[in-house]
Write a structure and sequence with these properties.
Layout lengths: L12 H9 L18 H8 L2 H9 L14 H7 L3 H9 L4 E2 L5 E2 L27 E9 L3 E8 L2 E8 L4 H14 L10 E5 L6 E5 L6 H6 L6 H20 L3 E4 L8 E4 L6 H11 L1 E4 L6 E5 L9 E2 L47 H4 L7 H16 L9 H10 L2 E3 L13 H10 L10 H14 L12 H5 L15 E3 L1
Antiparallel strand pairs: 1-2, 3-4, 4-5, 5-7, 6-7, 8-11, 9-10, 11-12, 13-14
Helix pairs in contact: 1-2, 2-3, 2-4, 4-5, 8-11, 8-14, 11-13
GO molecular function: ATP binding; protein serine/threonine kinase activity
Family: Belongs to the protein kinase superfamily. TKL Ser/Thr protein kinase family.
InterPro entries: Ankyrin_rpt, Ankyrin_rpt-contain_sf, Kinase-like_dom_sf, Prot_kinase_dom, Protein_kinase_ATP_BS, Ser-Thr/Tyr_kinase_cat_dom, Ser/Thr_kinase_AS, Ser/Thr_Kinases-Pseudokinases
Length: 487
């Protein structure tokens, strides 16, 4: 069991072991480092572990140790795009090495343009909380409450942080860091934040149609054409995140509750239904678990996200490639230059990729798997593994190859096109290298959309067969009488 500062720190086991070694007076000793002369501060800065970096500095860790790769902790923070950490290190005297090997200020280095530094002055996105008038609560998570609010005459959504513990603040910083950098028609627009006083807040555009989860809870079943359009919106937003330069973004927490519906001004419940059923645009939200990484496109590993050359940060090697499925980082992708090893359980269990549940290294293809599970619910009208406990479902998917099984018709009594089923099944493949990139998914969905008759003129309604089912009851009988299948 780890105590402070590792309780909420990095997840990589080698990183945690080295930090644990430095959790006492050893952190002041120059010999507290690994083979590559990387200190606990190097590793914490590289992983973006703000609370760990702060603890180390407060307990006397040297701020400018230089590793075998001629890097300081500040350079690791900059290359990881951890702007808040870079600011903290600069405030404590952090520097980087120049070409001659001398320690210089970041401002005097070519690295200066690689990260957005947060200064003591009010940043351009800082909002005075007095200008916010909070109205009704529209959502709540573990660490925050979301309100519909008025900001200088504009209707907005405000996430208010409920607590200021290390985990909550970590998610807050992560979301803030990602939101201010992503700009796309299918990502929620960031408007500003309250960071100078508590409670901390994030202000975004108000999504009038609610979330995809709200639509599912309301027992609303979109037409097949409309469902494909929503899937396209999601895929376009994710294609943008995964191909963003120079820092690609893995969402890591895709689920219906984090997919919001925006549209024209809502004046009545009927308008809200129109937004969900016909006109609304789907946007990605909630980037609290996202990870920003340098994007590379190796020939054989298009899904890899690179954080080179910090080989010392990457642990957990295996000696047997034969025992690991193709696509596993333990096997073909063992080389540190080909994949940044992310571990740990993030996201909701029903939508969690098998490699995440197994605590194996993974890459951006975890979003493709979650996308497939959301699409299953979007097309079929039922959550994946609807009759199973979420954790048991995730365990069966990860260890036994279990996957949801299609019924003969969906909850709208529609027959799902085979091409659509095959696309979803490809996206939830056990071998993550077999899962397509979102640019490819978009092309396939656009082709399928052209083949489906547009049903916008038809008002959505529950079919008689769906009405007869009890709430939470079983779907139409699938092949062999099961709701799931083993892959």
């Amino acid at each position: 069991m780890y105590g402070p500062p590792l309780q909420y720190g990095p997840t990589d086991p080698n990183t945690r072991r080295l930090l644990a070694a430095g959790a006492g007076e050893q952190i002041k000793d120059a010999s507290c480092c690994d083979y590559d002369r990387r200190t606990p501060l190097h590793l914490a800065a590289a992983e973006g572990a703000f609370s760990v970096v702060l603890w180390l500095l407060d307990h006397g860790a040297e701020v400018n140790p230089v590793d075998r790769f001629k890097r300081t902790p500040l350079e690791d923070a900059v290359r990881g795009d951890h702007g808040d950490l870079a600011t903290l290190l600069i405030q404590r005297g952090g520097k980087v090495l120049d070409k001659e090997g001398a320690l210089v200020d970041l401002a005097d280095s070519p690295l200066a343009g690689n990260v957005r530094i947060f200064t003591d002055y009010d940043p351009e996105w800082e909002i005075d909380p007095i200008s916010l008038k909070l109205n009704e609560k529209i959502g709540e998570g573990e660490f925050g409450v979301v309100y519909k609010a008025n900001w200088n005459g504009t209707q907005v959504a405000v996430k208010v942080l409920k607590e200021t513990g290390a985990v909550a603040l970590g998610d807050f910083r992560t979301e803030l860091n990602v939101l201010q950098k992503v700009h796309h028609p299918h990502t929620v627009q960031f408007l500003g934040a309250v960071t100078k006083q508590t409670p901390f807040m994030i202000v975004t555009e108000y999504m009038v149609g609610g979330s995809l989860a709200d639509m599912f809870k309301g027992q609303r079943f979109p037409s097949m054409w409309r469902a494909v359009q929503l899937a396209l919106d999601m895929a376009r937003g994710l294609a943008y995140l995964h191909n963003r330069s120079p820092q690609a973004v893995i969402h890591r927490d895709l689920k219906p509750a984090n997919l919001m519906m925006g549209g024209p001004k809502v004046l009545s419940p009927h308008h809200r239904q129109l937004c969900q059923d016909e006109m609304g645009v789907l946007k990605l939200a909630d980037f609290g678990l996202s990870k920003s990484l340098k994007l590379t496109k190796p020939k054989r590993h298009r899904g890899s996200l690179d954080m080179t050359p910090d080989n010392s940060v990457l642990g957990g090697r295996t000696n047997s490639a034969a025992a690991t499925p193709k696509g596993s980082v333990h096997g073909e992708m063992e080389k540190a230059t080909q994949s940044y090893k992310l571990t740990g359980e993030t996201g909701s269990y029903r939508f969690m990729a098998p490699e995440v549940f197994r605590h194996e290294p993974y890459n951006n293809k975890v979003d493709v798997y979650s996308f497939a599970m959301i699409c299953f619910q979007l097309f079929e009208g039922l959550p994946p593994y609807w009759n199973m406990d979420p954790i048991e479902a995730a365990r069966a998917a990860a260890l036994k190859g279990l996957r949801p099984q299609w019924g003969p018709t969906n909850r709208r009594d529609q027959v799902i096109p085979n091409r659509l089923k095959r696309l979803v099944e490809t996206c939830w493949a056990a071998d993550y290298e077999s899962r397509p990139e979102f640019v490819e998914v978009i092309e396939m969905l656009e082709d399928i959309s052209k083949e489906i008759k547009t049903e916008l003129a038809e008002p959505p309604k529950r079919p008689p067969s769906a009405v007869q089912r009890k709430e939470g009851g079983p779907p139409p009988v699938a092949e062999e009488g099961h709701c799931c299948s083993l892959q």
